[in-house]
Amino acid sequence: MLIYIQNISPRTDYIFSILLSALGIKDCRFTSDKAFYKSEVKAKINYSSERIIESEVWIKPVTLLFENEIKEQQIDCFDYSGSKAFFKTSDGDFSFDIFAAAFYLISRYEEYLPHKKDMYGRYAHENSIAFKEGFLQLPLVNIWLQQFGRLLTQKFPGLTFSPAPFTFLPTYDIDIAYSYLHKGFVRNAAGFIKSMWKSEWALVKERMNVLFAKQQDPFDSYAWLDELHTKHQLRPLFFFLVPQKNKGYDKNILPSKRALKNLIQTIAAKYDVGIHPSWQSGDNPQLLREEIKTLQTITAKKIIKSRQHYIRMNLPDTYRRLINEGITEDYSMGYGSINGFRASWCLPYAWYDLQKEETTSLIIYPFCYMDANSFYEQQFSCEEASDELKHYYQITKDVNGLFITIWHNHFLGTDKMFMGWKEILEPGFSGFKGLEGNKIID
């Protein structure tokens, strides 16, 4: 395929590469030579202000991809083929500038603009166009891309696509490995006192039974998860919180404890693991470096995968820190306050540093569903959470995306607060028909 762009820029290189690669179009060339463009007989996309030839797909551009600054953009949404779109154009073979609109969403352009933070100092999802316009629950750019692919095949019947198949990746954040075990005398004594003060005698008894090995720790769901993954031939990904000390939101047992080391080594022997950078490390890059080194020492493996604890991230600083520490894959692209598609996209993609105007080596793996969002933030019942999970599974499958879910071990154990969550996860796995590895075979 040949693409004509009058002024090729880092932004055009980036977004054309992402979208056309996702379609499975591997042989693409860019040119700003109009005579050469006219002479070629390949399938052609014209991304310029006027039509060049009839045998092309013409997308009339807005100015976004040719700019080299970050500024407020005029975003006016309109209905398009049953969903929303913006950057509408008066001419062309497509109703809007799909490449500029996709760039705006995938690059997280709006997060570089002045915005309100949430209670945790994160970009608040209420700021986003996806939330305001009601398409946060959709991988909108993937949907647009399917429609654009149909336009290409109508125009060029001989053009063939080979997109990657739909894939499911369950991931787990281990930030509170155990409820009672391995927490030491002081923390357990404080727990006893707190429960007795509140007359929570069932919890006092439970803590006693666990500590005296009469009952399994209610957060210990690891053997059950292993059986589930083995049964369904899944390759999950585990992220471990390994701070040097407990403080604030960092409440896991410490990596100096033999129990956490054993747990990490057992899981890492069979599955991929990544770092779950502590809340403390968000203010101290040196702590991030130490935590990655700690996990590498425990696993005897190089750690290249990461997901932020509490999804604490701010662009571009968080991603730059990860790159500096050798992280090549990040799984934090989603909200810690609501489920949905933060970047309106459900496939891995390279992060674009908008301030530096460059494509980086960091690959982003966006998630769309997290148990804690359903339970704590959206306050869904188990039935509602199950329906929500099914929605994200189906909509991601419809666009041949990568369906990434986040679960926490304490939701899937025996703690009474989370009764019913294990029953959500297991039938969900069973309902993903035709599992082969982590791929869905229809």
Describe this structure in words.
With 442 residues, the chain is of the alpha/beta class. It folds into two domains: 2-155, no CATH class; 167-179 and 217-440, Glycoside hydrolase/deacetylase (TIM Barrel, Alpha-Beta Barrel), CATH 3.20.20.370. 35% of the residues lie in helices and 14% in strands. α1 (10-23) packs across α3 (98-106), α3 (98-106) runs antiparallel to α5 (140-155) and α6 runs antiparallel to α7. It has a five-stranded parallel beta sheet.
Summarize this entry quickly:
With 442 residues, this protein is an alpha/beta fold.
Give the secondary structure arrangement, pairings included:
Blueprint: E1 2-5, H1 10-23, E2 29-31, H2 34-39, E3 44-47, E4 57-58, E5 78-80, E6 83-85, H3 98-106, H4 129-132, H5 140-155, E7 167-174, H6 184-197, H7 201-211, H8 222-231, E8 237-240, H9 258-268, E9 272-275, H10 285-299, E10 305-306, H11 317-324, E11 329-330, E12 349-353, E13 358-364, E14 369-370, H12 371-377, H13 382-398, E15 402-408, H14 421-431, E16 435-436, E17 439-440
Parallel strand pairs: 1-2, 1-3, 3-4, 7-8, 7-15, 8-9, 10-11, 11-13, 14-15
Antiparallel strand pairs: 5-6, 12-13, 16-17
Helix pairs in contact: 1-3, 3-5, 6-7, 13-14
